[in-house]
Amino acid sequence: MAKDLLYYLIFPGLIFISVAGGLLSGFDRKITAWLQFRKGPPLIQPFYDFLKLLLVKETIIPARGSVLTFLAAPVFAFAGALISGLLILLPGFGFKPGFSGDVIVVFYMLTIPSLTYIIGALAAGNPLASVGASREMKLIISYELTFLLIIAAVILKAGNTIRISDIIQAQVEQGAFIGSISGLLLFIAAVFCIQAKLGLVPFDMAEAETEINHGAFIEYSGTAYALIKLAKYIMFFILPAFICVILLGGISLNGIQVLWTILKIMGVVLLITLIRNTNPRVKIDQAMRFFFIWMNLLVIIAIVLILFGL
Predict the structure, then answer these.
(1) pTM of the predicted model as reported, rounded to 2 decimal places
(2) What is the domain extent for residue 248?
């Protein structure tokens, strides 16, 4: 029992996931500043932002809408992100073997934060929040199919196993999946799915500060918004970690593999940061067309290549 609490609350649980997510978010902001020839904020700026929202800023309740639903949405977003992280990292680091079908459960759990953002926005009673919720809803419909196909392709490539630890073991025996043509195509599609799941440019139309003033989050402040920030920090860590687990040979805490794990995760984050700083925001219909046609086609080609052993 004590060991389980250690896993869930400290490492690789709540504290580790939150700190790692905050540091990666700070790394993203630092790289963004350098690309724009600015000094940028300190690496730990996300922690300052979180603590300021949590301890200083007042939580303002919108006059219209459902108060209970509005306040519950950030809690469920945080819970969904945290549980997803545990399901990925416990078998990823070798603490627990996971269970049959855990990769499917992870797929659904990773959807919870985005769904709760929609529910919270609709509960706010603000027209701009409703616009953001509508855009987020359409975005989910488009990229989730691609993400599901990516997981299906990984399962097929790993010998039809639906357990994360077995997917990692398959890569230990065969080599990282990204080393094949099909694996490379899956990685490209996965990076864009991560971009959309995190709501980063070019898929940030649900927040779109210059158009709808943070959209789905326009009414959030104080502790409620701090939980949303924390959920986003966690997602910023566990989504790249998940890609490393299913496509880049896994993650490890053994010897020099620790450094290699850090470099892989930071490499994925760096790629995401470069994409969001070199592309303009697209319209929601362009995003849907991009995933429905081009990314789905890319993943289908990868699945066909897998069937031919490529």
Answers:
(1) 0.95
(2) 2-307
